[in-house]
User: Fold these one by one.
Assistant:
Number 1:
Amino acid sequence: MFGESTLVFIALGGIFAYSFYAVLVAGQLSLGQAGFAALAAFTSVAVGPSPADVGELPALLIGLLIGVVVGAVSAVVLGLPTIRLRGVFLAIATLAFAEAVRILLVNAEWTGGAQGTSVTKVVTPAIAWLALLLVGYWFWRQGPSRYGRALAAIREDELAARAMGVDVGRHRLSAFVAAGAIAGAYGVLWAYYMRLVAPEDFDFVAAIDGLVTAVVGGSTLFIGPLLGSGFLTMVPEIQREIGVDAGWVRPFLSGLLLLLVILFLPGGLASLIPVRRTAPPATGGDLGSEHERLSTRTHPAAGEPVVEVSGLGKDYGGVHAVRDVDLTLRSGEVVGLIGPNGAGKTTLVNLISGLVPATSGTVRVLGVEPGRTPVHRVAAAGVSRTFQHSKLFPRLSALDNVLVGSHLVSRPTFLRRLLWLPSARRDEQQALQHAARCLARVGLGERASVPAAALSYGDQRRLEIARALAADPSLLILDEPAAGMNHVEATGLSELIGSLAAGGLTILLIEHNVGMVLRTCHRIVVLNFGEVIAAGGPQEVVKDPAVVAAYLGGSAGEGPDLPGPAAAARPEGPTAEGEQP
């Protein structure tokens, strides 16, 4: 059963599956790997030296080098125009590329046409498994690195990844190039094992087999492609051993297993392997202490302008979501943004954080112009945020969510991890300690290993704040952070916001809990139908007749009975009389 061919096919199938895994971990569905493999195989055979001239192993090594380069270059050529495509559109575009390559090779003279080209057999089971182990090692070391976490974040929620400072386009293209290089290596190994390489070896069925192998094995753990290849290769062998005709088994089994995995085991076979990651104990000290920060970012001095908005407007057709807004936030301020549902609060913070471009007016944040600057560069300038509807990375643990948040302030470690350099381990430990402190700061230190999707709604809101804090921002935008929290939790959040502002952090807070806003904020800005109807100190705004009529309720000129700001819950700033709740 475990003959030479079976061992080689398991290894080669695993390598090809890794070329799909390389893009699946970044949320991409590409079917162009068969085209990369075909180009690499025929180019290495046509350009590379003959084994009879330089020896079998040197010829294979040179051929592999040629194949990897051809696969990577082909991936760049295909990736640049298609990298913005998503889902089925990317799959169709890349499949069209693979089919175009196959037809081109069938009709080319230098490839031998449909009959193919004969090649000297060089690959042995040892060589095939060594290549598989090298590829597996690459992804093993990639997973826990900053680069690997960024790819996982893109897969889970691309918008949230951008807001954390991840350059999504660059990371997607790099994953695409890795897929092309690995597919190129597979094509060369296939050619030097089969003795005859033909365009039909890299047809649509081969592409689907590679994808199914990767999906059945699982894209959440690096060992998935190996598990998938071993399983799908061995089942037909077992069928053959017991006397069942296996000619139809492989395609039937591929389709059936893909359906079953999607329905009952979305994480593939690898999800059956328990993986538990715990956070290191958080060291004491203030999160804002200089010795604990990973970033070398210089934060604005107290009182310096952080956000400058002038005449800002955003239209959606005939709907004016935001109209002629002027706003200035200074370093160390906590500014509340309140108003009825649909008043334009979230649209305004989306304009400030660069998620949507303005229709009119100007906005400048920490030296950059959101809307004209990519979102990840706005984040790199020092803007971090939470979202109205929680945007966590659900399959990642709470700790890994916060580690993604530290993307901009931690150092890249992937290449150093490949070489086992001690500096990579030190940097990873520093990032882990930083993430653990952020979790402890919001009261989630004991939930570090829990997947984000398994947390309660209130804990998810706190986790999103911890992730935002991990970026060491100069401006923190909180969009309804107290949603789902009880009175005690909201009071604790108010105290946390106050202590962060006392450390120099500027905070823009959207919240419907008006009592919390009054306790926490130095100034309050009130929006209604996209326009600012009031701005000023908490007690000044809460008594404004326009605010009472539009949002707070009650008789004009008479504000509701709400608590005033708590001095202990916020830094020095505008004060107002009132009792603690």
Number 2:
Amino acid sequence: MKYSASCIALCLVMGLVFLPGCNLFKTVPQDEAKRQGKTIADFPETAVDVFHEMDGGIALTSDEVKGRNTWMLWTGGNQAFWDYLAKNSYGNLDFLKILSSYPRPDKAGKKYAYSRDNRFEYFGLMNEPGFTKATAPDPAYGLYLDKPIGTAPEGIDSVVSGMSSGIVGLRLFPNPKFDKTSSDYDQDVVEYWDAERYYTDPDYYLDKELERPYRVGMSCAFCHVGPHPLHPPADPENPQWSNLSTNVGAQYFWIGRIFIAHPDEENFAWQLFNSSPPGALDTSIIATDNINNPRTMNAIYEVGARLGTGEEEEITGGALAVPGTTPRMVVPHILKDGSDSVGILGALSRVYINIGEFHEEWIKHFKPIVGGKKQFPMDVKTAKENSVYWQATEQRVENLAKFFLKAGGGHHLKDAPGGQAYLTADEAKLNHGKLVFADHCAACHSSKLPKPHTTVKDHDSFYNKWIHSRDFKNKMHEIVLKPDFLEDNYLSNEHRYSVADLKTNACASLATNGLRGHVWDNFTSETYKTLPAVRSIKIHDPFSGESSVYNMPGGGRGYYRTPSLVSMWSTAPYLHNNAVGKFTNDPSIAGRMEAFHDGVEKLLWPKKRFESKCQETWGLPWCPPVYKTTKESYLKINKEYLPEILKTKLLVKGEDELKIGPIPKGTPINLLANINNELSFGDPVRLVRLVKVLKKIKTSLKRIKIEKMNEQESTALLKTLVPDLLKVNKCPDFVVNRGHEYGSQLSDDDKHALIDFLKTL
């Protein structure tokens, strides 16, 4: 059978050929530390309180200090993984680049968009205090990395935790392969190193065998440290440690910029990453489930109160090897879809695997970034036996939990500089808002609730009816009016709610990595795996707006846990994907309040979420946001990432990259990004359906190019593909800011009073 270049290329796009370097191991590997003969004794925790100014200067015990240091410094050996990904991400990700302040244009004349001067504005990342911008290359390797001011703080073992990089949460480690005596390569890797070409020449920096002088590791702080709501920096580009919070979450984090070292609007990969709103990312971006579903960074508030809100889960199989699990246990649900259901210690352990710990084994269980390979479970017992880094992390997570029990308190507007000016002094109006909250919000958004007097067989059914009764509301009024209502209140519960009831975008609830037999099988409960399917939902054609019914699958999918409202004033935009409300990129009190007011009004007055005058496209008086390409784009793959056989078949002489497309401007990104290549796993009928759709896409894209269609013509052609694409789409729900309209039917007076109360949370 002969395949055209476009057909082979489409298979590459949809992940039907292997990402280079994936599936390297035939047997269970050991991690790097174990291969080097190290033990957990080689990775001691540090009790030196080097970050004592953070988190409002809170006093910590020795164990709590160790926990914070783990959060800030511990990478679990993932520097080896991120180094691997720098060589195997089609030239997109390179953390050593984003750490740099290179001042000159590259070979194509394009200047880097980022440096230490604008890291917060551009990346949403926190510059590490105690460093200054590099104005000249370092004498050792010619890199433009931040320079420390004074001496490094004592008490941090750089062998264990790496060196400070200039960005909070990224740690520098010497690359053990950057060695003249290395026998892995034909050439001398040290002599081959050329920093100038590394910054400017794609022929050089896209070389998959290029060894960089440093590896870059990632600690949890990278995605969770942000500007402290109560102590905001005067200049976000130059914070002090006292301006930073470990638990607020990286609310300004631009994943589309961080993961693309060389931004290119014509590259569909950039379009895909750039669809994530600031402060949100798809945590399945590496162990992909082929659903583009950005979710907000979790703020970690009121951990003690949260532990009291958990629900009982049945734990079976490999999950019983997870730290702290028992066959039946009450647990909080960490991930947005409620899948991470094996307890706090298990959740923390899973996070380290998800950011690259023991990647030697982890990446065998899926095909990184592109998918297209049937997943199988990451076995906890295997990690315990073969990864010293897992063992060291397991030893640390208890102190990490202790730290957040102490430091996870809420940030209240009344305590912020100038915060009182935003709060009402009208006690009657505030009490009015409390009662509205009690009647319409508290059943889901309070961990302090009344209990029914009766015990009934079908508790859930009874409770769901009772919370709408006058009896419940009267009791809730008493609770919400108490002076201590907000003390130790998680302002949430741990119940899973049907997305069919919430009516929010379904994509994150359709995530599959935690299902039985998938990569995170050992980190999800039997309760989760046997959840029944929710009822069908309404979806919309992303071009016409025409609605249809989508039958939700079961086995764990279709649910969301309730987000906490603690410090709601400081955490806008809203919903699980940051899709409701203005992003101000301003961590000042005024900036946060501007975002709060815009977001909360759009929650309570849903029509404010949508643009007007959209009848031409949707036949509706409002225009729902859909992630769309901003420019005609292509899936670009540099020749370095193509197998030799495909180089000869797909590239003509002189071509440096494969360009698949054009993909018209305005293409709904998830129409392509969510193509379900799992249809090819063991089912000939479904495989035939998938191949037919891919061939149809190939033919259409070819027509756009050959016939030189304009934007209007190419869009019209793309619309004809929508029905076929929807049939193979893993999440055909494209409207990202819909749903959660609770309270929208309240009077305006009720809404304004409620907003005044929400400011106090």
Number 3:
Amino acid sequence: MNTVLELISEKLKSAFTACGYEEKYGTAAVSNRPDLCQYQCNGALAAAKQYHKAPIAIAGEIAEKLAGDGFFSKVEAVNPGFLNLNISNKALAEYLNQMAKSENLGFEPANTGKTAIVDYGGANVAKPLHVGHLRPAIIGESVKRLLDFDGYKTIGDAHLGDWGTPIGLIFTEMQVRFPDLVYWDENYTGEYPKDCPVSLKELEEIYPFASAKSKEDEEYRAKARQAVFELQNGRRGYMALWKKIMEISKADLKRNYDNLNVHFELWYGESDADPYIVPMIEDLKKKGIAKISEGALVVDVKEESDNKEMPPCMLLKSDGAVGYDSTDLATIVQRQKDFSPSKIIYVVDKRQGLHFEQVFRAARKAGIVGDDTELFFLGNGTMNGKDGKPFKTRDGGVMRLEFLVRDISDKVLEKMADRDMEEEEAQEISRMVGLAALKYGDLSNQATKDYIFDIDRFTSFEGNTGPYILYTMVRIKSILEKLASAEGTSIDKIRNDVTFGNFKMGRTAREYGASEVDLMLSLTGFSESIHKAADECAPHKICAFVYDLADKFNSFYHDNKIVTQEDVNVRNEWVCLIVDVLTALEICMDLLAIKVPDRM
């Protein structure tokens, strides 16, 4: 169904054309001065230049044309040429009736039949998830869910770092510590051990040690590079050990991502793109796109419009090694072959922006993707501490993600100490609320911007926070429980039976309280908000809608005694309203991948 803004814009366009002006000027927007009006149109200001007329005169004509339309309770032309609009309570109730009777509150997917791949996660095997992995994981999961809701067939790819330098460093250090392992024997032809020779805990200690050592020891670093080369060329023992390490690493990564309510359809890594690299490079050579520059094989991706330096996309380094440019380019080849996506979205640290611009340009220049495939880089900012620097532990180290989740859950548990519930339930709920606090605190910020992690603010039960939204939803559930108990029925039956068809259209404007109208208007923005968030890959727009709706509900709740309302018709209307408010909040929180407890 059309959004309210679309309905108003249609009426404005008809009025503009009826008055002799182009319809393009008849576009409505939510008012930025809600104290003056609900919606506004600034088209008369733009039309004045084309038609050489005073904007207030044009606005006056449009206002007069719309004056008799019962959809509006106010149409007002205001200097210098604004149109201020309010819709009538009858029109508002009719619109909410239609929303209530429609699937997903009237939201209509705009991209059915298309495929989108969301590349997020980006973890390295044999290393624990740390706070730097938080943003791409939860932003990517939300973007994937938004696109799925908007009609796309969505595929989330973890795109693991499983094939490069970290593995070479691990192998090199393992040969020092465990020199007798059969994996190092090039002449061995038997079966390799069933279990991985090292534990995940050992791997998590080995890699940082090896990484630090390689920075000081050139010979050690060269051995690591050679190990990567031999692995990528199929050395049997190295391949067997790599697979064992992959097994235990993937299992741990899945466990941690599952705990975040982040789920991937594909667990591909850089290794999965490896078979495509050589054929891709040969193809680029034949096309004359790949050329030697300073000993390296590159694709020139400079464009005349560039106003800053644009380095070439490097296919092979001067020593013949393959880098990230080739791997990411080959991954696009693989995705085109397997899925033919309409859109590929990369949710990655924004500092990788130049790299992906090089890869995207090379992909288009080589014809790997056509104009019908969108390559979208969604660079995320950094989660910083209160000092404004990337978030660290107290001793200056990088915090493991599971420890951050534990700390914020403990903080919520501390704030819920006065709740009357068993310890086990309190632990479970505090974890759900803690995750909501963490994820909402992140997602409510624009993805590309840095933000300050403030555990006290994020876990507050007041203001624009995850706990505040959850508490609002639990409050609505509590109201419905009381009504169900009083009427000897169930919440599910109430939710299934009620529609806005119970609205009595004859109520006058004075009988609608201001907070009631505000809540109704906020609810009508449901579809508009989701479409914008999906189009722009912007979960923070969902958060903005959710907070506004929750805040409007709480104002309405404080102004009205819903359960004890004696007028049955009015109470039924309010029940219809809060049921759909809860439905909207539930859908949106699921789009943010945030779970909601039944009580708090």
